Amino acid sequence: MEERANGIEVHGLVREYKKGPRAVDGIDITVAPGEIYGFLGPNGAGKSTTVHVLTTLLPPTAGTARVGGYDVVKEGPKVRSMIGVALQEAALDPLLTGRDHLRLQATLQGVRKHRRKVQADELLIRVGLADAADRKVSGYSGGMKRRLDLALALVHMPRILFLDEPTTGLDPQSRTALWEEVARLRREEGVTVFLTTQYLEEADVLADRVGIIDQGKIVAEGTPAELKAEIGRPSVHAIPRDEQDREKIAAFLAPFGERLDTTRDVAVRLRDGLGLTDIVRAVDANGVDIADLELRAPSLDDVFLAKTGRTLEGAAEETEAR
Amino acid sequence: MSSSWPQVGAIARRSIVRTARQPASVIPPLVFPVALMTVNAAGLQASTELPGFPTDSFLAFALAVPFIQGALFSTMNAGTDLARDVQTGFINRLALTALRDWALLVGQLSGIVVLGVVQAVFYLAVGIASGVDFESGPAGIALLLFYAAVVSLSFGALGAWLALRLGSGESIQAMFPVLFVFLFISSMNTPRDLIDVEWFQTAATLNPVSYMIEAVRSLIIEGWNGQALALGFGFTIVIGVISIMLASSALRTRMTRT
Lengths: 322, 258
Fold this sequence. Notes:
Chain A is an alpha/beta fold. Chain A is built from 13 helices and 14 strands. Chain A has two domains: 2-228, Rossmann fold (3-Layer(aba) Sandwich), CATH 3.40.50.300; 233-297, Alpha-Beta Plaits, CATH 3.30.70. Chain A has a six-stranded mixed beta sheet with strand order 6-7-8-3-9-10, sandwiched between helices. By secondary structure, chain B is mostly helical. Chain B contains eleven helices and no strands. The longest helix of chain B has 30 residues, at 137-166. Chain B is elongated, with a radius of gyration of 19 Å. Chain A binds chain B through residues 55-59, 72-74, 76-77, 79-81, 83, 85, 87, 89, 91-93, 95-96, 100, 103-105, 107-110, 113, 136, 152, and chain B through 3, 6-7, 9-11, 13-14, 17-18, 21-22, 85, 88-90, 92-99, 256-258.
């Protein structure tokens, strides 16, 4: 029972906005207790709307969702007592200090009075903000705000953590530090993590399983390895020395596999049984002038491309254009 | 319900701390009403020679105005802060905690009331330092401070309603001049029965702000005037009750959660 209580179960979840599109269109998700579930998709795919429904901020239009064993519609307060949430915008009060925020949050979450200060101090140390604890948040960097946001989500020791694009806009160092803390929470405290991201690397590094969402629907789900194995074959990317040779190189590579839609280079997904050596031999024999040639293992972007016909980057641009 | 009181205290504390850390929210509500009163007292002292004017000190007559004007100022600031919480998504952070809707509203209003009383103490100190006698004595001063709390609560609820309804700090700021008009079309500078312009007298008579000012004024220059106090408290309470109901409804809409 305890095991089940930390999971997330979503069936046929739909969320429509008035006069708007169906932001979430009948998705099914099961997140096991203690699992890090990466919810990957471009901007506007429905990730944040899903998080808002699962965290009780938005009622679903249809379908059911249970978080920590509680129904998000009928048992909102119980769901909220189980979860910690860091939304996409780290909504912090610029006039309060980091410590003020933690004390406020601890009080509002019902943390016992004698535990509030201890809990705040522990979390400030854990997220590396002890030295900045008494500075107003208006003076914090983006990375510091994100770390404080994470500490606030953890103040009542939730069993399930929702992180909505937690590393967007962070520098690589802050991003890595946040990944380490999320991994530690799962490893040492058994916290279930539902993490939305538009970064392939983040999903690949952190998530036990990944759900890929596009236009409100889940188009693929599995472990990163399983998803990449579905694509199976690697791709070869050639950068022409002279940009005018682009089509010539494309024609030359065509017999080796189907062409991929890329802008920076000319790429093909290799047919079964072919490898980089076959291409190098052919390049040598034909005298094609190539500046760089690279063999790439399938990535989650390849999975997205295979499932939707678009790259993640391209899908984001389309959404922005709409 | 008892477990919600620490939440009320935490929200009230935040409201006070925020205001205290913004000099632009602290200084104008203290300085401007006193400055306006000083200018008026200097320029309009001759009004006291009008037959039927209730006191020979215009300063004593005008001292009632800062109590209402200051409450209006701080209320707008508090409304703006709440609207910013809506704009920035901070209200979602609150919605995701165990905070109850009523506790947010009560906490927010408690903070405003505390600040309102602090302001009132300042105006009172300025008045006493300027030599104004309080005809109602120490009990009247205590009632005046209590009334300042009630006015802050009422105006605070009005500001909260506007903030939650409009959801934008800029919109609240834009409402400020509209509310200020109520102050100027009142008996702030002249007793209603001495206003010579008919439409102005009618407007001042219909304006609840006149009765708020007159309630405070009665304690300062008259002593104990039951009718003035009843009208002042009555209008303030009615405005407060209506505003709290509207703010509660707006909060339920704004702080959506299942």
